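Input record (Table S2, row 388):
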Amino acid sequence: MVDISTLEKMDGTLLEKAIKEAVAVNRHYLAPFTDSFRYSHSEDNFYAPSENVEWTTGFWTGELWLSYELSGDEAFKDAALKQVDSFYDRIVRKIDVEHHDMGFLYSPSCVAAYKLTGSEKARKAALMAADNLISRFQEKGQFIQAWGKVGDPKEYRLIIDCLLNLPLLFWATETTGDGKYRDIAERHFSTAIGCVLRPDDSTYHTYYFDPETGKPDRGVTAQGNRNGSAWARGQAWGIYGSALAYRHTGSDKALDVFRRSLSFFLAHLPSDVIPYWDFDFDNPSDEPRDSSALAIAICAMLEAADDIGGEEGNELRDKAGRLMAPLYEKCAVRNPEESNGLLLHGTYARKSQWNTCRNRGVDECNLWGDYYYLEALRRLKGKWEPYW
Ligand code: GLY
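Output record (glycine complex):
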Protein backbone atom coordinates (compact mmCIF):
# COMPACT_ATOMS: atom_id res chain seq x y z
CA MET A 1 0.00 0.00 0.00
CA VAL A 2 1.31 3.43 -0.87
CA ASP A 3 1.16 6.40 1.51
CA ILE A 4 -0.21 8.98 -0.92
CA SER A 5 0.53 11.90 1.41
CA THR A 6 4.28 11.26 0.95
CA LEU A 7 4.15 11.58 -2.86
CA GLU A 8 5.24 14.84 -4.38
CA LYS A 9 2.37 16.75 -5.94
CA MET A 10 2.17 17.81 -9.59
CA ASP A 11 2.72 21.55 -9.24
CA GLY A 12 1.69 24.30 -11.66
CA THR A 13 4.99 24.25 -13.54
CA LEU A 14 4.92 20.49 -14.08
CA LEU A 15 1.25 20.66 -15.06
CA GLU A 16 1.97 23.26 -17.75
CA LYS A 17 4.89 21.18 -19.02
CA ALA A 18 2.77 18.03 -19.18
CA ILE A 19 -0.03 19.86 -21.02
CA LYS A 20 2.41 21.39 -23.51
CA GLU A 21 3.98 18.01 -24.26
CA ALA A 22 0.64 16.20 -24.66
CA VAL A 23 -0.85 18.85 -26.93
CA ALA A 24 2.37 18.88 -29.01
CA VAL A 25 2.15 15.11 -29.56
CA ASN A 26 -1.49 15.38 -30.64
CA ARG A 27 -0.71 18.33 -32.93
CA HIS A 28 2.16 16.42 -34.53
CA TYR A 29 -0.14 13.51 -35.43
CA LEU A 30 -3.25 15.51 -36.24
CA ALA A 31 -3.01 15.34 -40.05
CA PRO A 32 -2.85 11.53 -40.39
CA PHE A 33 -5.61 11.09 -37.80
CA THR A 34 -8.21 13.57 -38.99
CA ASP A 35 -9.93 11.62 -41.77
CA SER A 36 -8.91 8.43 -40.08
CA PHE A 37 -9.50 7.20 -36.53
CA ARG A 38 -7.09 5.16 -34.42
CA TYR A 39 -7.01 1.51 -33.51
CA SER A 40 -7.97 0.83 -29.87
CA HIS A 41 -4.40 0.27 -28.73
CA SER A 42 -0.87 0.79 -29.98
CA GLU A 43 1.72 -1.72 -31.21
CA ASP A 44 5.18 -0.85 -29.92
CA ASN A 45 3.64 2.40 -28.71
CA PHE A 46 2.35 3.54 -32.12
CA TYR A 47 -1.29 3.49 -33.16
CA ALA A 48 -2.32 2.32 -36.61
CA PRO A 49 -5.16 4.06 -38.44
CA SER A 50 -8.65 2.61 -38.20
CA GLU A 51 -12.19 3.09 -39.49
CA ASN A 52 -14.77 4.47 -37.05
CA VAL A 53 -15.52 1.08 -35.47
CA GLU A 54 -15.18 -0.54 -31.99
CA TRP A 55 -16.11 1.13 -28.69
CA THR A 56 -13.01 3.34 -28.51
CA THR A 57 -12.95 5.87 -31.37
CA GLY A 58 -14.80 8.56 -29.38
CA PHE A 59 -11.78 8.90 -27.12
CA TRP A 60 -9.60 10.16 -29.95
CA THR A 61 -12.20 12.77 -30.93
CA GLY A 62 -12.46 13.63 -27.23
CA GLU A 63 -8.70 14.17 -27.13
CA LEU A 64 -9.06 16.60 -30.01
CA TRP A 65 -11.68 18.57 -28.05
CA LEU A 66 -9.50 18.60 -24.95
CA SER A 67 -6.49 19.67 -27.00
CA TYR A 68 -8.60 22.48 -28.48
CA GLU A 69 -9.68 23.59 -25.01
CA LEU A 70 -6.12 23.44 -23.68
CA SER A 71 -4.47 25.26 -26.61
CA GLY A 72 -7.20 27.30 -28.31
CA ASP A 73 -5.85 25.92 -31.60
CA GLU A 74 -8.74 25.87 -34.11
CA ALA A 75 -7.08 23.07 -36.10
CA PHE A 76 -8.12 20.64 -33.34
CA LYS A 77 -11.68 21.92 -33.44
CA ASP A 78 -11.91 21.61 -37.23
CA ALA A 79 -10.63 18.02 -37.10
CA ALA A 80 -13.00 17.10 -34.27
CA LEU A 81 -15.98 18.51 -36.18
CA LYS A 82 -15.03 16.42 -39.22
CA GLN A 83 -15.11 13.38 -36.98
CA VAL A 84 -18.55 14.35 -35.68
CA ASP A 85 -19.77 13.84 -39.27
CA SER A 86 -18.43 10.30 -39.10
CA PHE A 87 -20.18 9.63 -35.76
CA TYR A 88 -23.45 10.93 -37.24
CA ASP A 89 -23.05 8.60 -40.19
CA ARG A 90 -22.14 5.68 -37.93
CA ILE A 91 -25.30 5.89 -35.82
CA VAL A 92 -27.58 6.57 -38.82
CA ARG A 93 -26.16 3.58 -40.68
CA LYS A 94 -25.90 1.51 -37.48
CA ILE A 95 -22.25 0.58 -38.02
CA ASP A 96 -20.95 -1.50 -35.09
CA VAL A 97 -23.47 -0.13 -32.59
CA GLU A 98 -25.09 -3.38 -31.45
CA HIS A 99 -23.68 -3.01 -27.92
CA HIS A 100 -24.04 -0.65 -24.96
CA ASP A 101 -20.96 1.54 -25.44
CA MET A 102 -22.88 4.52 -26.80
CA GLY A 103 -21.64 6.78 -23.99
CA PHE A 104 -17.97 5.94 -24.51
CA LEU A 105 -18.46 6.68 -28.20
CA TYR A 106 -20.78 9.69 -28.18
CA SER A 107 -20.06 11.65 -24.96
CA PRO A 108 -16.45 12.70 -25.67
CA SER A 109 -17.13 13.18 -29.39
CA CYS A 110 -20.65 14.52 -29.97
CA VAL A 111 -21.84 15.73 -26.55
CA ALA A 112 -18.49 17.55 -26.29
CA ALA A 113 -19.02 19.04 -29.76
CA TYR A 114 -22.51 20.24 -28.84
CA LYS A 115 -21.34 21.74 -25.55
CA LEU A 116 -18.34 23.48 -27.11
CA THR A 117 -19.74 24.62 -30.47
CA GLY A 118 -23.53 24.19 -30.32
CA SER A 119 -23.41 21.79 -33.31
CA GLU A 120 -26.97 20.56 -33.93
CA LYS A 121 -25.67 17.63 -35.95
CA ALA A 122 -23.64 16.49 -32.94
CA ARG A 123 -26.68 16.83 -30.67
CA LYS A 124 -28.80 14.78 -33.06
CA ALA A 125 -26.15 12.07 -33.34
CA ALA A 126 -25.77 11.84 -29.55
CA LEU A 127 -29.54 11.61 -29.10
CA MET A 128 -29.78 8.78 -31.63
CA ALA A 129 -27.02 7.03 -29.69
CA ALA A 130 -28.97 7.54 -26.44
CA ASP A 131 -32.06 6.01 -28.09
CA ASN A 132 -29.95 3.06 -29.20
CA LEU A 133 -28.66 2.64 -25.64
CA ILE A 134 -32.08 2.63 -23.98
CA SER A 135 -33.31 0.09 -26.53
CA ARG A 136 -31.04 -2.40 -24.71
CA PHE A 137 -32.82 -1.97 -21.36
CA GLN A 138 -34.20 -5.21 -19.96
CA GLU A 139 -37.34 -4.80 -17.84
CA LYS A 140 -36.75 -8.30 -16.49
CA GLY A 141 -33.76 -7.58 -14.31
CA GLN A 142 -33.82 -3.76 -14.77
CA PHE A 143 -30.49 -3.36 -16.53
CA ILE A 144 -28.95 -2.36 -19.84
CA GLN A 145 -27.66 -5.46 -21.60
CA ALA A 146 -23.99 -4.97 -22.43
CA TRP A 147 -23.18 -7.17 -25.36
CA GLY A 148 -24.75 -9.31 -28.05
CA LYS A 149 -28.26 -9.44 -29.44
CA VAL A 150 -30.81 -7.89 -27.09
CA GLY A 151 -32.48 -10.70 -25.13
CA ASP A 152 -29.95 -13.41 -26.02
CA PRO A 153 -30.09 -15.63 -22.89
CA LYS A 154 -26.34 -16.30 -23.16
CA GLU A 155 -25.66 -12.55 -23.00
CA TYR A 156 -28.16 -11.64 -20.27
CA ARG A 157 -25.77 -9.54 -18.23
CA LEU A 158 -24.52 -6.08 -17.38
CA ILE A 159 -20.91 -5.00 -17.02
CA ILE A 160 -19.43 -2.42 -14.67
CA ASP A 161 -18.02 -0.36 -17.58
CA CYS A 162 -21.60 0.63 -18.50
CA LEU A 163 -21.64 3.15 -15.65
CA LEU A 164 -19.69 5.43 -18.00
CA ASN A 165 -22.43 5.10 -20.64
CA LEU A 166 -25.06 6.51 -18.29
CA PRO A 167 -24.01 10.19 -18.47
CA LEU A 168 -25.15 10.17 -22.12
CA LEU A 169 -28.64 9.37 -20.81
CA PHE A 170 -28.55 12.06 -18.10
CA TRP A 171 -27.50 14.55 -20.77
CA ALA A 172 -30.25 13.36 -23.15
CA THR A 173 -32.89 14.14 -20.52
CA GLU A 174 -31.33 17.52 -19.78
CA THR A 175 -31.26 18.53 -23.44
CA THR A 176 -34.71 17.17 -24.45
CA GLY A 177 -36.67 17.47 -21.20
CA ASP A 178 -37.76 13.86 -21.72
CA GLY A 179 -37.31 11.95 -18.45
CA LYS A 180 -37.22 8.47 -20.01
CA TYR A 181 -33.43 8.51 -20.46
CA ARG A 182 -32.71 9.53 -16.87
CA ASP A 183 -35.22 7.01 -15.57
CA ILE A 184 -33.42 4.14 -17.31
CA ALA A 185 -30.01 5.44 -16.21
CA GLU A 186 -31.18 5.52 -12.59
CA ARG A 187 -32.73 2.05 -12.74
CA HIS A 188 -29.62 0.56 -14.35
CA PHE A 189 -27.34 2.25 -11.81
CA SER A 190 -29.36 0.92 -8.91
CA THR A 191 -29.33 -2.64 -10.31
CA ALA A 192 -25.64 -2.52 -11.20
CA ILE A 193 -24.34 -1.31 -7.85
CA GLY A 194 -26.67 -3.73 -6.08
CA CYS A 195 -24.77 -6.64 -7.58
CA VAL A 196 -21.26 -5.64 -8.71
CA LEU A 197 -20.05 -4.09 -5.45
CA ARG A 198 -18.83 -6.76 -3.04
CA PRO A 199 -18.85 -6.49 0.77
CA ASP A 200 -15.06 -5.79 0.75
CA ASP A 201 -15.67 -2.88 -1.72
CA SER A 202 -14.04 -4.63 -4.66
CA THR A 203 -16.18 -5.16 -7.76
CA TYR A 204 -17.26 -7.82 -10.23
CA HIS A 205 -16.64 -7.04 -13.86
CA THR A 206 -19.87 -8.57 -15.20
CA TYR A 207 -23.07 -9.89 -13.65
CA TYR A 208 -25.56 -12.34 -15.16
CA PHE A 209 -29.31 -12.34 -14.61
CA ASP A 210 -31.84 -15.11 -15.03
CA PRO A 211 -33.59 -14.29 -18.32
CA GLU A 212 -36.84 -15.94 -17.13
CA THR A 213 -37.18 -14.27 -13.74
CA GLY A 214 -34.80 -11.31 -14.02
CA LYS A 215 -33.16 -12.32 -10.72
CA PRO A 216 -29.42 -11.57 -10.30
CA ASP A 217 -27.58 -14.83 -10.89
CA ARG A 218 -23.78 -14.67 -10.72
CA GLY A 219 -20.72 -12.47 -11.03
CA VAL A 220 -18.22 -13.46 -13.70
CA THR A 221 -15.14 -11.76 -15.03
CA ALA A 222 -14.38 -11.11 -18.67
CA GLN A 223 -11.14 -9.11 -18.47
CA GLY A 224 -10.10 -9.62 -14.84
CA ASN A 225 -7.78 -12.34 -13.61
CA ARG A 226 -10.60 -14.50 -12.17
CA ASN A 227 -14.27 -14.21 -11.22
CA GLY A 228 -13.55 -13.19 -7.64
CA SER A 229 -10.68 -10.77 -8.33
CA ALA A 230 -10.79 -7.00 -8.76
CA TRP A 231 -9.87 -6.07 -12.34
CA ALA A 232 -8.11 -2.74 -11.91
CA ARG A 233 -9.86 -0.94 -14.78
CA GLY A 234 -13.24 -2.35 -13.81
CA GLN A 235 -12.74 -0.94 -10.32
CA ALA A 236 -11.82 2.41 -11.89
CA TRP A 237 -14.97 2.38 -14.05
CA GLY A 238 -16.92 1.81 -10.83
CA ILE A 239 -15.26 4.79 -9.15
CA TYR A 240 -15.76 7.20 -12.03
CA GLY A 241 -19.23 5.88 -12.88
CA SER A 242 -20.46 6.44 -9.33
CA ALA A 243 -18.82 9.89 -9.13
CA LEU A 244 -20.66 10.88 -12.31
CA ALA A 245 -23.93 9.37 -11.07
CA TYR A 246 -23.50 11.47 -7.92
CA ARG A 247 -22.92 14.57 -10.04
CA HIS A 248 -26.12 13.93 -12.02
CA THR A 249 -28.40 12.69 -9.24
CA GLY A 250 -26.97 13.85 -5.90
CA SER A 251 -27.84 10.38 -4.58
CA ASP A 252 -26.32 9.32 -1.24
CA LYS A 253 -26.02 5.78 -2.60
CA ALA A 254 -23.85 6.95 -5.52
CA LEU A 255 -21.64 8.89 -3.13
CA ASP A 256 -21.30 5.86 -0.88
CA VAL A 257 -20.30 3.63 -3.82
CA PHE A 258 -17.77 6.24 -4.95
CA ARG A 259 -16.16 6.38 -1.51
CA ARG A 260 -16.08 2.62 -1.05
CA SER A 261 -14.79 1.66 -4.49
CA LEU A 262 -12.15 4.42 -4.34
CA SER A 263 -10.95 3.36 -0.94
CA PHE A 264 -10.41 -0.21 -2.18
CA PHE A 265 -8.54 1.07 -5.26
CA LEU A 266 -6.21 3.37 -3.30
CA ALA A 267 -5.54 0.74 -0.63
CA HIS A 268 -4.40 -1.72 -3.31
CA LEU A 269 -2.02 0.48 -5.29
CA PRO A 270 1.52 -0.91 -5.33
CA SER A 271 4.31 1.10 -3.72
CA ASP A 272 5.32 2.62 -7.08
CA VAL A 273 1.69 3.70 -7.61
CA ILE A 274 0.93 2.44 -11.16
CA PRO A 275 -1.63 -0.38 -10.70
CA TYR A 276 -1.12 -3.87 -12.03
CA TRP A 277 -3.88 -4.86 -14.44
CA ASP A 278 -5.64 -6.80 -11.69
CA PHE A 279 -5.44 -6.27 -7.93
CA ASP A 280 -4.62 -9.95 -7.50
CA PHE A 281 -1.05 -8.80 -8.21
CA ASP A 282 1.12 -6.71 -5.95
CA ASN A 283 4.77 -5.79 -6.07
CA PRO A 284 6.98 -7.54 -6.77
CA SER A 285 5.27 -9.00 -9.82
CA ASP A 286 6.17 -9.38 -13.48
CA GLU A 287 2.56 -8.86 -14.49
CA PRO A 288 1.90 -5.79 -16.65
CA ARG A 289 0.47 -2.53 -15.36
CA ASP A 290 -2.64 -0.72 -16.45
CA SER A 291 -1.85 3.00 -16.33
CA SER A 292 -5.29 3.78 -17.79
CA ALA A 293 -6.98 2.56 -14.59
CA LEU A 294 -5.10 5.20 -12.59
CA ALA A 295 -5.90 7.96 -15.11
CA ILE A 296 -9.62 7.08 -14.86
CA ALA A 297 -9.53 7.04 -11.05
CA ILE A 298 -7.79 10.44 -10.95
CA CYS A 299 -10.51 11.96 -13.17
CA ALA A 300 -13.12 10.47 -10.82
CA MET A 301 -11.43 12.02 -7.79
CA LEU A 302 -11.29 15.42 -9.46
CA GLU A 303 -14.94 15.16 -10.50
CA ALA A 304 -16.03 14.20 -6.98
CA ALA A 305 -13.82 16.92 -5.47
CA ASP A 306 -15.94 19.52 -7.30
CA ASP A 307 -19.25 17.88 -6.44
CA ILE A 308 -18.58 17.12 -2.77
CA GLY A 309 -16.61 20.27 -1.97
CA GLY A 310 -15.47 21.18 1.56
CA GLU A 311 -12.67 19.35 3.32
CA GLU A 312 -13.31 16.03 1.58
CA GLY A 313 -13.21 17.79 -1.79
CA ASN A 314 -9.89 19.43 -0.92
CA GLU A 315 -8.43 16.10 0.18
CA LEU A 316 -9.54 14.40 -3.02
CA ARG A 317 -8.01 17.15 -5.15
CA ASP A 318 -4.78 16.98 -3.16
CA LYS A 319 -4.52 13.19 -3.53
CA ALA A 320 -5.33 13.38 -7.25
CA GLY A 321 -2.45 15.84 -7.73
CA ARG A 322 -0.09 13.53 -5.84
CA LEU A 323 -1.08 10.51 -7.93
CA MET A 324 -0.77 12.51 -11.12
CA ALA A 325 2.96 13.19 -10.60
CA PRO A 326 4.05 9.50 -10.72
CA LEU A 327 1.59 8.85 -13.56
CA TYR A 328 3.36 11.58 -15.51
CA GLU A 329 6.89 10.55 -14.46
CA LYS A 330 6.48 6.85 -15.27
CA CYS A 331 3.96 6.78 -18.10
CA ALA A 332 3.61 10.08 -19.99
CA VAL A 333 4.90 10.38 -23.55
CA ARG A 334 7.18 13.43 -23.73
CA ASN A 335 7.72 13.80 -27.46
CA PRO A 336 6.31 12.54 -30.80
CA GLU A 337 9.35 10.34 -31.55
CA GLU A 338 8.58 8.18 -28.54
CA SER A 339 4.96 7.39 -29.42
CA ASN A 340 1.88 8.80 -31.14
CA GLY A 341 -0.13 8.17 -27.97
CA LEU A 342 0.00 10.01 -24.64
CA LEU A 343 0.14 7.37 -21.91
CA LEU A 344 2.42 4.33 -21.92
CA HIS A 345 2.03 1.09 -19.95
CA GLY A 346 -1.66 0.39 -20.34
CA THR A 347 -3.19 -3.05 -20.72
CA TYR A 348 -6.30 -3.59 -22.80
CA ALA A 349 -6.69 -7.31 -22.07
CA ARG A 350 -4.46 -9.87 -20.45
CA LYS A 351 -5.07 -13.59 -20.83
CA SER A 352 -5.21 -15.58 -17.62
CA GLN A 353 -6.01 -19.19 -16.89
CA TRP A 354 -9.52 -18.20 -15.74
CA ASN A 355 -10.65 -15.36 -18.02
CA THR A 356 -11.88 -15.44 -21.62
CA CYS A 357 -9.37 -12.96 -23.08
CA ARG A 358 -6.55 -13.12 -25.51
CA ASN A 359 -3.56 -10.85 -24.90
CA ARG A 360 -4.35 -7.50 -26.43
CA GLY A 361 -2.54 -4.18 -26.08
CA VAL A 362 -0.38 -5.42 -23.19
CA ASP A 363 2.07 -2.76 -21.98
CA GLU A 364 0.91 -0.40 -24.71
CA CYS A 365 -0.93 2.89 -25.08
CA ASN A 366 -4.69 2.64 -25.35
CA LEU A 367 -7.12 5.31 -26.47
CA TRP A 368 -8.98 5.65 -23.17
CA GLY A 369 -5.72 5.87 -21.21
CA ASP A 370 -4.59 8.74 -23.43
CA TYR A 371 -7.98 10.43 -23.22
CA TYR A 372 -8.38 10.23 -19.41
CA TYR A 373 -4.78 11.32 -18.87
CA LEU A 374 -5.51 14.45 -20.92
CA GLU A 375 -8.86 14.94 -19.18
CA ALA A 376 -7.07 14.76 -15.82
CA LEU A 377 -4.60 17.44 -16.98
CA ARG A 378 -7.53 19.60 -18.12
CA ARG A 379 -9.31 19.12 -14.80
CA LEU A 380 -6.16 20.00 -12.83
CA LYS A 381 -5.79 23.22 -14.81
CA GLY A 382 -9.08 24.61 -13.49
CA LYS A 383 -12.86 24.48 -13.69
CA TRP A 384 -14.08 22.31 -16.54
CA GLU A 385 -17.49 21.56 -18.04
CA PRO A 386 -17.36 17.74 -18.37
CA TYR A 387 -18.34 15.97 -21.58
CA TRP A 388 -19.87 13.28 -19.32
N1 GLY B 1 -14.86 -1.13 -21.66
C1 GLY B 1 -13.95 -2.13 -22.01
C2 GLY B 1 -12.64 -2.00 -21.33
O1 GLY B 1 -12.46 -1.23 -20.41
O2 GLY B 1 -11.72 -2.69 -21.77
